Structures are given as C-alpha cells and as structure tokens.
User: What shape does this take?
Amino acid sequence: MQLRIEFQKYPLAHEVRTDKALYDFVLELKNTYLHNAEQLSKVLYDNKLHIINNALGTHTKFSRKQGKKLKSKREIHISALFKEMPLEFLRMIVVHEVAHIRVRDHDKAFYHLCQHMEPAYAQLEFDVRVYLTYLDSGRKVLWPTAHALTTLQT
Assistant: This one.
C-alpha cells in the first residue's frame, strides 16, 4: 500500500538519461548553491556502483603532481538505478554528492547543507530507501521511463 502512495506522489521517471544531461543537471545545482566551489571534471551514471560499493553515489577527489603543480580533479558517480526513478529521487542523490564538495563527513553540517539545497531532503532519502527495499525484494521497477511510456502509447 505504501508503494502505491509513493507511485502517486512521484508519477514519472525523469528525462536526465545521458551522462551529459546528468553533468548539466549536477552543474546547475552546484552553481546555484556552491558557486565558489571547485569545478567538477566528470559526472556520470555508473552501472556497477551499487553492486561494488553498496553505494548509490560517490564523490571522489584525485590529486596528482604535474610538473611543479599539484592538479586535482573531482568526480561524481551516480548509480544507474537512478535513471529509472523520479526526478525528485535523482535530485536527492545529486544534492547528497554535491554537498560532499563542501562537507566531507556525514555530520550535522552536512545534513544542514543538504536540507538547504533540497528542503524535502530527509523525506526524499526515506522514500528512496523504501523504494530500494522494494526493489531488493525482487519486485519490478515502478517508474517506466518517459521513452517507454511513449512507445506504449503509439
């Protein structure tokens, strides 16, 4: 019954389907809330992320020496599971990973920043956990992609 309510609350999957679209989505959010923060060098959907790290997203920073300079790069990887979820769920995980640019640990300041970027962050995180539990029980994906809906209608 709970998942039927969630399906009604979030009726459609989002249109952010490619790594380029995801990069633009993340960059817009980052520039809105953390405009002075270091740039991201890569943002992409990762098909193996959930399986390997038991994580839904990762934020990593690489540093390497290039001549006399120290170069650093930041990357965000989002689990490909989020391709078939509502925009609100994608936004929640993106907010989480973008917040790690400013705050490394999951502490009070981190969750305060998440709430600032997405006021419904706590509820969305809970809804994502409920949905992932539903998927782990062997059930089918609830949100067909917009492309799949268009195909079914024609």
Remarks:
- The chain has a mean pLDDT of 84.
